[in-house]
Design goal:
The chain has 73 residues and is of the alpha+beta class. The protein has helices at 31-43, 50-59; strands at residues 2-3, 9-14, 17-22, 25-30, 48-49. The chain has one domain. The strands form 2 sheets. It has a 3-stranded antiparallel beta sheet, covered by helices on one side. It has a two-stranded antiparallel ribbon with strand order 1-5. The longest helix has 13 residues, at 31-43. It is globular. The mean pLDDT is 84.
Length: 73
């Protein structure tokens, strides 16, 4: 399986809170989680394998990434 940034992924930040969206779903996250999410979205502009994503998360100190790869299941 490969992972890639969705063309529907959007984000914004206001009052030290981030907003991430995909399609009709929106999530309010901390500023720190918002910045981590932007790193992942940028990394996934080109498709990556599961192992590549896990290694990226470990390298960038993004905890529990392997538990969150299928956000919309």
């Amino acid at each position: 399986m490969f992972y890639k940034t969705s063309y529907l992924a959007t984000g914004g930040c206001s009052n030290h809170q981030g907003i991430l969206g995909v399609g009709t779903k929106q999530y309010f996250v901390s500023e720190a989680d918002y910045l981590k999410s932007l790193k992942i979205l940028d990394f996934l502009l080109n498709k990556k394998t599961y192992d590549e994503v896990i290694k990226f998360c470990e390298k960038n100190n993004i905890a529990n990434c392997n538990n969150k790869l299928n956000t919309f299941s």
